[in-house]
């Protein structure tokens, strides 16, 4: 596959992986299974590391804004690159496991040192991503084992997947079959448990908020009742002119109100203009008198002027008698339509906060009371503050709008944190409205406990998956041995049978195997028995044929010898006028003699009766003599001879026969004529080499080995009209093999054929070499 196609493959699979990442499967709350890594690993395994890295970079783009940092994106890119780089050495699962084995160093440098993410969050994130990657690698490995997939992708499959053992195939399939149901069932159970715990937490928050709201309403109602009662008392004590009683009387009444109302911090009576006429206590913390202070700028002074009953203010920053956030209850002093002033009591918010906290007990709960304008009346997490805080435009305010006057919800306490940290700051709350004030009581708890429960569930699920994986692998090994052992027994029996051991049988290896494998072994044994009988019959027939050819050849040689002698006598007696005819007869007798000799040699080879008579000789002299004699007798052909002296221990007559066969074949299969090239040389490794090349009809690649068989000439129509019995190359190969050499025949570029013979110059045992097919010994030149 070209580089451009690999890049296109990586980009295409990366885009598809990015789309799959949009449809993440939730295994547990906050724990998602991404499908994009499946296509990233597919690109790496099928198209190489460049495609894998590109696919990872494209499919992981969404994580840049989803997680708030680039390290998840880079991690997916490196995973595709790493698995692609190892695809020719190990299977996808092993390659991905090696990658995740090295990943802790990556997480330490990026997540911990650069992003400062807590260790527990890093551990969860690392395990999530590792499970995503390993599960994707396992799915890919199983899919690539399917026959229909392998047929379509055979050219792209790396060697570890092409040569995958049956044990690994069983292990992958069984492991995936065990993990998927566990993921589905474990995820469903974890989500159900999480949902139940969230429901319990929300109910607890809502109940606590209701208790606190009742307490606040009760306290404010008591303070409001005291203020209202005092206002009515003062209304009846007004002078005919509508004037209030003197300060001593007012101070006595105020002291009684503060003394008998524990929820009241201080109190005063104000004039219609908002000036304090009497105060209880009399002075502030610094000892300054409070009477005469002007509160006319307060909004409640205007509100109470129009009111007919007691009021409760929103939170504001107090002064005079108390500092910090303050809530007051007040009532108008009125006789008919005449407004004479008001009575005000400041609510003791610290006491109210402590009392509310006592109602819900200790723990991680936090109580917030919010007034109608969004100001915090008090926050149980803060002992005291000098400022009035507001929740307007905060995440809590938005969540309260969605929850309504009575309900539950969640919000993220840290919006700008990375996803891993932000999820751990999730707050669950319950809200109850304090009627008729419009205040809202919020009781919230952090989701850290739920997060820990999810993490424990996830780790438990991973432990279950690990045990399932180990069990599946052990079962796969057991079953694969049960299945592979009989198959290997049949394979070994077939190998022994191919090597010539006709007694090889497989039934014993499959005695304890499943029925189908046992039947396979029995069928193989029946086939081996029948094949052995057929081979014996063929060999018997071949021996009888070779014996017949040997006898017939011997019988034919005697009359041919006599016929040759008679031709020579006739040539001497008849004179020159009959020389041409006698020469033609002599050539035909020589041709028949050669054919008979070839048949005799073929029969002797079949009967293993062709010994060699080695002598020290120069191969080039034999080649020169035979080639010049044959080419000179053919007027259409010319000889191009390069005969470098090559001395060795050879059988001269047999090598002369080989040279005669090769050169005569070159002439015979070049019916239109041409140059016959013959050369001998000594190769650098000490071998003698003989090459015969022609520009004839050539040969097909599939015929290269077939033509060395006995009585084989090929089935091309160009051979029609060319005489021969198909034993010359067979005899030549056997002679060369007995010399310890090898012979090959191959098509020649531009047309024709090239025959190459290589012989060791030193003596080798005739049967010291195994008879290896020439096409396996000889490489192309």
UniProtKB/TrEMBL annotation:
<keyword id="KW-0472">Membrane</keyword>
<dbReference type="InterPro" id="IPR004358">
    <property type="entry name" value="Sig_transdc_His_kin-like_C"/>
</dbReference>
<feature type="transmembrane region" description="Helical">
    <location>
        <begin position="458"/>
        <end position="479"/>
    </location>
</feature>
<keyword id="KW-1003">Cell membrane</keyword>
<keyword id="KW-0808">Transferase</keyword>
<dbReference type="Pfam" id="PF00672">
    <property type="entry name" value="HAMP"/>
</dbReference>
<dbReference type="Pfam" id="PF02518">
    <property type="entry name" value="HATPase_c"/>
</dbReference>
<feature type="region of interest" description="Disordered">
    <location>
        <begin position="762"/>
        <end position="781"/>
    </location>
</feature>
<feature type="domain" description="HAMP">
    <location>
        <begin position="481"/>
        <end position="536"/>
    </location>
</feature>
<feature type="compositionally biased region" description="Basic and acidic residues">
    <location>
        <begin position="764"/>
        <end position="781"/>
    </location>
</feature>
<feature type="transmembrane region" description="Helical">
    <location>
        <begin position="64"/>
        <end position="85"/>
    </location>
</feature>
<dbReference type="Pfam" id="PF02743">
    <property type="entry name" value="dCache_1"/>
</dbReference>
<feature type="domain" description="Histidine kinase">
    <location>
        <begin position="551"/>
        <end position="763"/>
    </location>
</feature>
<keyword id="KW-0418">Kinase</keyword>
<feature type="transmembrane region" description="Helical">
    <location>
        <begin position="97"/>
        <end position="114"/>
    </location>
</feature>
<feature type="transmembrane region" description="Helical">
    <location>
        <begin position="34"/>
        <end position="57"/>
    </location>
</feature>
<dbReference type="InterPro" id="IPR050428">
    <property type="entry name" value="TCS_sensor_his_kinase"/>
</dbReference>
<dbReference type="GO" id="GO:0016301">
    <property type="term" value="F:kinase activity"/>
</dbReference>
<dbReference type="InterPro" id="IPR003594">
    <property type="entry name" value="HATPase_dom"/>
</dbReference>
<keyword id="KW-1133">Transmembrane helix</keyword>
<dbReference type="InterPro" id="IPR003661">
    <property type="entry name" value="HisK_dim/P_dom"/>
</dbReference>
<protein>
    <recommendedName>
        <fullName>histidine kinase</fullName>
        <ecNumber>2.7.13.3</ecNumber>
    </recommendedName>
</protein>
<dbReference type="Pfam" id="PF00512">
    <property type="entry name" value="HisKA"/>
</dbReference>
<dbReference type="InterPro" id="IPR003660">
    <property type="entry name" value="HAMP_dom"/>
</dbReference>
<dbReference type="InterPro" id="IPR036097">
    <property type="entry name" value="HisK_dim/P_sf"/>
</dbReference>
<feature type="transmembrane region" description="Helical">
    <location>
        <begin position="166"/>
        <end position="185"/>
    </location>
</feature>
<feature type="transmembrane region" description="Helical">
    <location>
        <begin position="121"/>
        <end position="146"/>
    </location>
</feature>
<dbReference type="InterPro" id="IPR036890">
    <property type="entry name" value="HATPase_C_sf"/>
</dbReference>
<keyword id="KW-0902">Two-component regulatory system</keyword>
<keyword id="KW-0812">Transmembrane</keyword>
<keyword id="KW-0597">Phosphoprotein</keyword>
<dbReference type="InterPro" id="IPR033479">
    <property type="entry name" value="dCache_1"/>
</dbReference>
<dbReference type="InterPro" id="IPR005467">
    <property type="entry name" value="His_kinase_dom"/>
</dbReference>
